[in-house]
Amino acid sequence: MTIYLYTANQIPDFSPYRSPNDPHDGLICLTETIEPQHLLAAYPHGAFPWYEDDENRVYWFTQNPRAVLLPEKLHIRQSLQKTLRRQAHKITVNHCFDDVIEQCATIKRAGQGGSWISARFQAAYRALHRMGHAHSFECWLPENGDWALAGGLYGVQIGSVFYGESMFSRQANASQMAFAHAVPFLRECGIRLIDCQQDTDHLRQFGSQLMNLRDFKDHLRQYNAQPLTRPIVREMLFQAA
């Protein structure tokens, strides 16, 4: 299979189905740039940017099978339920998107030497946020008599699909607390499917499941065309002092 490199002014065709036996493990194409137009073309076809190399080529992938979460099947383990009941916390939506994506890019993770969220990636998603298609959820915890940003997550919303991208925690459980509040809120807004991309133990604890890529893309064709029942805007989602 030939992997094409698209020049700066070209938007790839992300639609071709890739079989589970793809020898490139889901790599679809490379681009010289990453812009909001690339993202809006990629996500509805199940593609996403993963990283860029030293020559500033962006690598676009799909994943088969795909890890997804149906909002109505969210599971919150008992220990996290206790934390949510006992820990003073505040959850906001779209209060500091730039800070969230920057933290996701810089926070150190076990077993990873660095982040794929380069400055160009951040710029593209920030532009998408200004267009109303990228959203952040923030978890604030008490610190020195005030609220401090302790964790959060961001993703892309097209129609009634939310494509989760990354999360971070500066304090234990902070990103999980944000996620536990975000999923019911997204369901209230009309989100029918949450794309988790990678199958991880962390997401399986929340009830994620694997879906064949062909079925996943069928769902995308249906749900990307369905508008939200409630807009995802800047707001205070929850506060427990």
TrEMBL record:
The gene is aat. This is Leucyl/phenylalanyl-tRNA--protein transferase. Functions in the N-end rule pathway of protein degradation where it conjugates Leu, Phe and, less efficiently, Met from aminoacyl-tRNAs to the N-termini of proteins containing an N-terminal arginine or lysine. Keywords: Acyltransferase, Cytoplasm, Transferase. Gene3D superfamilies: Leucyl/phenylalanyl-tRNA-protein transferase, C-terminal domain, Leucyl/phenylalanyl-tRNA-protein transferase, N-terminal domain. GO terms for cellular component: cytoplasm. NCBIfam families: aat. One of its GO terms (molecular function) is leucyl-tRNA--protein transferase activity. InterPro entries: Acyl_CoA_acyltransferase, Leu/Phe-tRNA_Trfase, Leu/Phe-tRNA_Trfase_C, Leu/Phe-tRNA_Trfase_N. It is an enzyme of class 2 (transferase). It catalyses: L-phenylalanyl-tRNA(Phe) + an N-terminal L-alpha-aminoacyl-[protein] = an N-terminal L-phenylalanyl-L-alpha-aminoacyl-[protein] + tRNA(Phe); N-terminal L-lysyl-[protein] + L-leucyl-tRNA(Leu) = N-terminal L-leucyl-L-lysyl-[protein] + tRNA(Leu) + H(+); N-terminal L-arginyl-[protein] + L-leucyl-tRNA(Leu) = N-terminal L-leucyl-L-arginyl-[protein] + tRNA(Leu) + H(+). The keyword Iron does not apply. Belongs to the L/F-transferase family. SUPFAM superfamilies: Acyl-CoA N-acyltransferases (Nat). It is found in: Cytoplasm. The keyword Acyltransferase applies.
